[in-house]
Input
Amino acid sequence: MDIISLCTIMVLAAFFLQMAVGKMITVSGKWWKRLLMLFSCWILLGTIIYIGDATNIIWAISFFLVVIQIVCEGGFWKKIVIGLMFSSTVFAFSALRDNYILTVHVRHVEPVRATIVSSCCALLFTLLLHTGIRRFAPDREYSLSESMWKLLLLLTMTPCGVVLSVIVLHPLSDTHGFDYILILIIALLSIIGLLWTVMVLAKQQKLEEQNMLAEINRSYYESMEEQHFAIRRLKHDLTNHLTTLTVMPEEQREAYIRSLIEDSPVTRSMQYCGDATVNAVLSVKEEQMEHYGIRLEAKIDIPKELPFEKRDICALFANALDNAAEACRKLEEDRRKILLRSKAQKGLFCLEVTNPVESAARESDDGAVSGIRKEEGLPQTSKPDKENHGIGLRSMKEIVERYCGAMELKAEGEVFEVFLYMPLR
Output
């Protein structure tokens, strides 16, 4: 009965740990991957961590990081950071449990009973960890830039290195026992603080995206209100226009009618497709482009709402058009033209944005875009404030990969093209 209780407790503890990890990074929906993730969490919690024993912690952390790479979705650096954070948190707790709680306080208890007590401690720890992360966790599909994940990796290495150095390099002794407890507790709190930092950053990014989407929608509805007001005004003036036409000479009527049509703001199309978010973005961006003399030619075949997050749709279209507009503003006005094609058919959503560039650019044999300054494999912004600009294409790439799609950049002659596709869910 004790063995059954032990197995049940450890499986529950591994389950809560898996749920906590799943709040920070998406675990694949395939059953065998979820089972592998549960097994790796069980290994992580069940590994005995004695100070001075380097074998257990090295193979356990290596196994867990490999499993994270196999079963979880997202970029390489995100998987590494999340894997290190959780494994270091568990190992710091396990070192405290196995070296102090278990050894000091239950040394006279039967081995099986002592193991059950240890397992109960693991269950309580994972339950608290899952509860805290569930309380503050961001959306499952949150995303941070690759440079942010690299920074978080650098910050994670310090408490992770402390835990490893205490466990691997220092033999346990009564003289330094209290020092080790204090160091492990500090490292544990530091890693939990970093997990909280990730959650705060993700929520802040979501808030910024929501604000951007809200601003675009506000501009969109303001434009619609202006159109409605223009329609009401046109109806009010219709009688006067008809009266004028009845007394106007025949040769002047056509010119008068044409001037009414061209001068009326009602002629602007606000309905590009069946997705309201796409309509909002294109309406606002087309109005902004007209200010710089940029012509936008949109060919869109999206009959209904796209099955993606609205903020992701907004980011894809807005960033693609912003980058194209930035390139066009450097050119003579007669060359300022952007061609946008998009469709959602046969299970695929496609977006293609083509724009002229300032100087000749061509694609090399290895597929890299030359003639354009690049950063991390993507064209680099020409704006002086590179900390706050130039993240558009990286953001688009992360969104596309999150939906299991792909994005391609192509430059031929003096034309630059962004093409992406994502499967419709």
Q: What stands out?
A: The radius of gyration is 30 Å. Residues 177-247 form the longest helix (71 residues). Residues 360-390 have pLDDT under 50 and may be disordered.
